[in-house]
UniProtKB/TrEMBL annotation:
<dbReference type="InterPro" id="IPR011611">
    <property type="entry name" value="PfkB_dom"/>
</dbReference>
<dbReference type="InterPro" id="IPR052700">
    <property type="entry name" value="Carb_kinase_PfkB-like"/>
</dbReference>
<protein>
    <submittedName>
        <fullName>Carbohydrate kinase PfkB</fullName>
    </submittedName>
</protein>
<keyword id="KW-0418">Kinase</keyword>
<feature type="domain" description="Carbohydrate kinase PfkB">
    <location>
        <begin position="83"/>
        <end position="351"/>
    </location>
</feature>
<dbReference type="InterPro" id="IPR029056">
    <property type="entry name" value="Ribokinase-like"/>
</dbReference>
<comment type="similarity">
    <text>Belongs to the carbohydrate kinase PfkB family.</text>
</comment>
<keyword id="KW-0808">Transferase</keyword>
<dbReference type="Pfam" id="PF00294">
    <property type="entry name" value="PfkB"/>
</dbReference>
<dbReference type="GO" id="GO:0016301">
    <property type="term" value="F:kinase activity"/>
</dbReference>
Length: 376
């Protein structure tokens, strides 16, 4: 595809402000692949709205632009608000990988960046401004003519804090498989990705060059709906042996082995560990389990965390876990940092950790005797 020989892309031109220095050609330690930029519309809604939209509750599956517009038109009449949450409807720069990368940079001081594309529209500018203000390296983010996404992603949070996501990506500009160069990955240590059967050519191309450059690969299983509908391509990707670290939540883990005699999270962890150096399965209020080689650990959840919105919990768990690996922590400690990080984001609406909740996370880490980030 000529990916190795193509010319390196020009850095994305950011707005002239005090964070423009992040847009350099210096390689970020952790690079997140998000083929297209996303802007999330996050709202707390009552259960009745979830009964009116297609698909299962709690999942994340792409839908047509018309369906997202239909959902957004109904949101205002189903909004939940409370004195403790003055902003029940919020628009934020998002995407699973962006959440993880932002968490690594803001929460843990790990040099991180994004590779992908955004459109030359208002939402593209919003995404760039938001991510650059978080000091992400955006030098590998291509800006293209066209829409960032017609409606991006609507994220509905119910009364119990569970989220249901419906992204619209069909018309969004995105990076193509033949656009990657070895310079995109050279110097980085980790590549963070999210499974998507719709982007398999992009994922495979990125993995191929990343491996040539000695970069380790982390994969999140995305959603139980994506795993269930496209299980075989996922299994083939795992069986390639190119995935070093895999994250799954309980629903995704069980969906992976659906139809097998034992489809428990523990069995799924064992399956993932056959192909990945590290594997972790989050279990909500029951904590998480993880495996590295023959070592298996189980870490309880943080009881002090009262979930307002589960959006980004798995993404931020990954931030903490990867931070632990970078710091050379034990498997158990990686899980504990991940639990602190994941719990911090559920304390408010949206997939971005607030400054107040970051301080809460650091306090929890300190209580558990975990090393705090160098930025403190």
């Amino acid at each position: 595809m000529g990916a190795e020989t193509g010319a390196a892309p020009e850095p994305l031109l950011l707005h002239q402000n005090d964070v423009v220095a992040v847009a350099t050609k210096d390689a970020p330690l952790v690079l997140g692949l998000q083929p297209c930029a996303l802007v999330d519309h996050v709202a707390r809604v009552d259960f009745s709205l979830l009964d009116q939209i297609p698909g299962e509750r709690g999942g994340s599956f792409p839908v047509a632009r018309e369906e997202v517009e239909n959902i957004l038109s109904k949101v205002k009449s189903h909004i939940l608000s409370s004195p403790n949450d003055p902003s029940p409807l919020r628009t934020v720069a998002g995407g699973s990988v962006a959440n993880t990368i932002r968490g690594l940079t803001v929460g843990f001081g790990v040099s991180s960046g994004l590779i992908g594309a955004c459109g030359d529209d208002e939402q593209g500018d919003f995404f760039v401004d938001s991510m650059s203000s978080s000091r992400l390296n955006l030098s590998k983010l291509r800006k293209k003519k066209g829409p960032t996404a017609q409606a991006s992603c609507v994220c509905l949070v119910d009364e119990e804090g569970n989220r249901t996501m419906r992204p619209c990506l069909s018309s969004a500009v995105k990076i193509q498989a033949d656009e990657f160069t070895k310079e995109d990955f050279s110097g980085s240590k980790w590549l963070v990705m999210r499974y998507s059967a719709y982007n398999m050519d992009i994922i495979k191309a990125a993995i191929r060059i990343a491996k040539q450059e000695g970069v380790s690969v982390s994969l999140d299983l995305a959603s139980f709906e994506m795993v269930g509908k496209f299980r075989q391509p996922l299994i083939e990707l795992l069986e390639s042996g190119d995935i070093d670290l895999c994250f799954a939540n309980e629903d995704e883990a069980m969906e992976l082995l659906r139809g097998k005699q034992d489809a428990s999270p523990e069995a799924s962890l064992e399956f993932l560990a056959k192909y990945c150096k590290w594997a972790a399965v989050t279990l909500g209020s029951y904590g998480c389990i993880a495996r590295h080689g023959k070592e298996i650990v189980r870490v309880p959840a943080i009881g002090e965390a009262k979930a307002i919105d589960a959006t980004g919990a798995g993404d931020l768990f990954a931030s903490g876990f990867i931070y632990g690996l970078i710091k050379g922590l034990s498997l158990e400690e990686c899980c504990k940092v991940g639990s602190c990080s994941g719990a911090s984001v559920v304390l408010s609406l949206g997939g971005e950790v607030t400054p107040e909740n970051l301080q809460w996370m650091y306090k929890q880490m300190q209580i558990k005797g975990l090393p705090l980030p160098d930025l403190l």
